[in-house]
Write a structure and sequence with these properties.
The complex is a heterodimer of chains A (about 190) and B (about 200).
Chain A (H helix, E strand, L loop, with lengths): L1 H19 L5 E2 L2 E5 L6 E5 L2 E5 L5 E3 L4 E2 L3 E3 L1 E4 L4 E6 L2 E3 L8 E7 L1 E2 L1 E6 L6 E5 L2 E5 L5 E3 L4 E2 L3 E8 L4 E5 L5 E3 L5 E10 L1
Parallel strand pairs in A: 2-11, 13-21
Antiparallel strand pairs in A: 1-6, 2-5, 3-4, 3-8, 7-10, 9-11, 12-17, 13-16, 14-15, 14-18, 18-20, 19-21
Chain B lengths: L1 H22 L7 E5 L6 E5 L2 E5 L5 E3 L9 E3 L1 E4 L4 E6 L2 E3 L8 E7 L1 E9 L7 E4 L2 E3 L7 E8 L3 E8 L4 E5 L9 E5 L5 E2 L3 E5 L1
Parallel strand pairs in B: 1-9, 10-17, 10-18
Antiparallel strand pairs in B: 1-4, 2-3, 2-6, 5-8, 7-9, 10-13, 11-12, 11-14, 14-16, 15-18
Chain lengths: ~190, ~200
């Protein structure tokens, strides 16, 4: 009698113990964020949208997910003037100890360039800040080496004149603040010196 | 007698096998990555071999091969002119994995670039050097860009003129004298004077 009571009790305890061990484990869906300088980012996972403010360095979705549930974190909306990418954003909960995606953001960048006339010899070197760009003879257009972040200034000058020519930047076309597109309107006119 | 013959055979076989494993010469190239080397003059050193590395290189390889388990210790025998480099993962025991993990990271020295301003009686002046800017206030008599790389070419432009004034760089080659170009020295450098006059 006594023995037959103990046996089911032991079985019950064992079952409860196993359940506590991870029968219903849930996982937090989140990760780190780097370089988020602008507002507007919205991340999404499994139907849940998560707006993230500028300056945040981590994120966590409200909804936790069960062991074995797939997750797939995506960028629903990019922040203003930035582009964010995600690594480690998808998988199955429990494959790793933690779900830890990495969102990293970069300011949009664009090039500066334009047109040149009368460039009959080699040797023209343009400069923006500390970055020089050599323009070959007979070129009718140019693009400066490197790119400029949205919102940053640029100003193109002639660093080295080609031999026998005087190349001038057309005032008003050569400098400004970078917007949301490549600048292609810088104008240079070269004439015999 | 037979036993002795067998033993010496075995010993010889062992020696041959060990030699094949790297007993002589070695078969590992000691190499690494280089970050931001913009100046000439860097010389790396390992085990008596010196390796000059010119500006712009992004990797290096010593010509002397290393053997497995050799100790290597890459050091900087000479810093580049106008820059400072440091090494991470530069020493250890040679294995096919470790011999390519060294990283040499260099930082070019920077110095202030400044110039005189005359006649700045109003606010609103904004000077730019590419993405970097400075806004000298009314009444100041100089402008400065605090950190410009050793030997770098530079171009400074007037992005906005002060209210009611027209500023011009002395010696400017552009039609409206709104810019100045030059090359940074290996110390604090003086750029062209900016003269401002009422419009």
């Amino acid at each position: 009698m006594k023995l037959s009571c103990l046996r089911p009790l032991a079985a019950l305890l064992l079952t409860l113990g196993l359940a506590a061990c991870g029968g219903k484990a849930t996982y937090e869906v989140g990760g780190s964020i780097s370089n988020l300088n602008n507002n507007g980012l919205v991340l999404a996972n499994g139907g849940e949208n998560l707006p993230v403010d500028a300056g945040q360095t981590s994120f966590t979705f409200k909804k936790r997910i069960d062991y074995g549930t797939d997750y797939n974190i995506t960028v629903q909306t990019q922040p203003a003037h930035m582009n964010c990418g995600i690594s480690g954003g998808s998988g199955s909960a429990g494959h790793y100890i933690n779900i830890s995606a990495a969102v990293s953001c970069l300011q949009n960048t664009y090039t500066v360039g334009g047109t040149v006339s009368g460039l009959t010899v080699d040797g023209l070197v343009l400069i923006n800040g500390n970055a020089t760009t050599t323009v070959a003879k007979d070129a009718t257009s140019f693009t400066m080496v490197g790119s400029v972040d949205y919102g940053k200034t640029y100003a193109v000058s002639v660093s080295v004149q080609p031999k026998g020519l005087q190349c001038d930047l057309v005032t008003g076309t050569e400098k400004g603040t970078m917007g949301e597109a490549n600048v292609t309107t810088v104008k240079i006119a070269c004439n015999p010196a | 007698m037979k036993n002795l013959y067998l033993r010496s055979m075995l010993a010889a076989a062992c020696a041959v096998t060990l030699a094949a494993c790297g007993g002589s010469g070695g078969n590992l190239y000691l190499s690494g990555r280089i970050v931001n080397l913009a100046k000439d003059g860097l010389i790396l050193m390992n085990n008596g071999e010196s390796l000059p590395v010119p500006a712009g290189q992004t990797s290096f390889v010593f010509t002397k091969l290393a053997k497995t388990d050799d100790h290597y210790d890459i050091t900087i025998a000479q810093q580049p002119k106008g820059a400072v480099c440091s090494i991470t993962n530069g020493s250890g025991k040679a294995t096919s994995y470790t011999v390519s993990t060294a990283v040499v990271t260099c930082t070019t020295n920077t110095y202030p670039l400044s110039g005189t301003i005359t006649g700045l009686t109003a606010g609103g002046l904004h000077l730019v050097m590419g993405p970097d800017g400075t806004s000298p206030l009314a009444g100041v008599s100089s402008y400065e860009f605090p950190s410009v790389a050793d030997g770098a070419a530079y171009g400074i432009s007037i992005l906005t003129q002060p209210t009611g004034l027209m500023c011009r760089f002395q010696g400017s080659k552009s039609a409206d004298a709104s810019d100045t170009v030059g090359t940074m020295g290996s110390a604090a450098t003086t750029a062209a004077t900016l003269d401002c006059t009422p419009q």
